[in-house]
Structures are given as C-alpha cells and as structure tokens.
Amino acid sequence: xxxxxxxxxxxxxxxxxxxxxxxxxxxxxxxxxxxxxxxxxxxxxxxxxxxxxxxxxxxxxxxxxxxxxxxxxxxxxxxxxxxxxxxxxxxxxxxxxxxxxxxxxxxxxxxxxxxxxxxxxxxxxxxxx
Length: 129
Fold this sequence. Notes:
Layout (H helix, E strand, L loop, with lengths): L11 H10 L6 E5 L2 E5 L3 E5 L4 H5 L6 E5 L2 H9 L13 E5 L5 H15 L2 H9 L2
Antiparallel strand pairs: 1-2, 2-3, 3-4, 4-5
C-alpha cells in the first residue's frame, strides 16, 4: 500500500530546500513514505520529520531531516532539533524550516550529503570550492 502524500508541491519551504539539495552533485529527488527525499545512492535529506508524538497526532511540521556525524547531531539536539519518528534511532535529526536560517539549513544538508554520498561525489563537491 502506497503512503499518502504528506506535503504540498507548491510549498515555498520545499522549493527552497529543493534548490539547496538538488544543487549537490548527483542529487535527485524521489518520493519516500509520502514525502520528498533527496539522495545520491542513499538518502541525505527528507522534507519532513515529525516526532513519534506529532506523527501519532497527525501533525506534520515543516522540517528537514538530515543524518549528521554523532557530535554534530548532539549539538543540533541541544539547539532544539528533534529526533524524527523511525529515523531518530539511526542518527537522524529534524530541524524546523519555518523561520529557519537558510544558510544553516544548507550547511546541514551538505553535512548530511557528506555522510551519505559516495566519495567521488564528495570530491566533486570539494572541487567546486
């Protein structure tokens, strides 16, 4: 059974996230569990990231979920990021996009890309300067 879509394709926050994620080498977008996912060989960002409680209540706050190195993950949780349902135990964190610092969002998406992407794509990103 397919998951229902949990986003609006015209969402300006999604548009901004798309522009950041799809600018990375080899990045593509796919639909995963009813929401946009950005990946190379592995997913590096999801548009969404409800906690278990929010998910159970049917809430879908505008967030981006990213996979970070352990130290950076802990720092983000201390700054107010949350553990997204199902992904949190695997090292993912979700950061609010409503009123976000988009420079920081871009840094987090890039950091997640670096954790998940093949080395040749990371090298391509580094070569861009």
